[in-house]
Amino acid sequence: MDTRFLTFMEFQSVYFYRFITLAIFATSGVLLLFALPEMKRTEISVIAPLLLILWGRFAVEYVRVKKSDPAFIHDDALVMSGVGRRRQIPLTRIRSVSSKHSVFMVRRYRSWTDHLAFLQVTLTNGERIYTLVESKVFEFPAGKRTLGAMQAAVLAAKTKKPARKQGSE
Length: 169
Known about the structure:
This protein is an alpha+beta fold. It contains three helices and six strands; from the N terminus they run ααββββββα. It has one domain (8-168).
């Protein structure tokens, strides 16, 4: 199974680069406040909406990363291992798996092609669980190898369960 979940150490790298990106955005906001009195109305009408869109997207990704925990698949279970907690979710309890692209959260800044995808796992009770996976910039859907492998593992676990029940009767 070709799953490319991020390890705990790679999560720490994402947290570091998230902080660096936040510092850059905060600095640009302060510089914009100082430059605002000298700017013309047309410049403000172009720059301000653009920066608001970028800051909004960064805020969305910041919250998604905050909700995410490292994960891996082991023995027909999705294991989520956050700081001080560990949770095993049987693959049969997973209703759907989807992914979304990341714009600002890169795994390493030395490569512009190594980005992240947010993998959202929806359980049968409606609970949503998030993790991060490797992705390429223009890959569709985001993190398609991991998404496909995860969907295949869930399908295999769900088809294996009825076969075990029929075999025991």
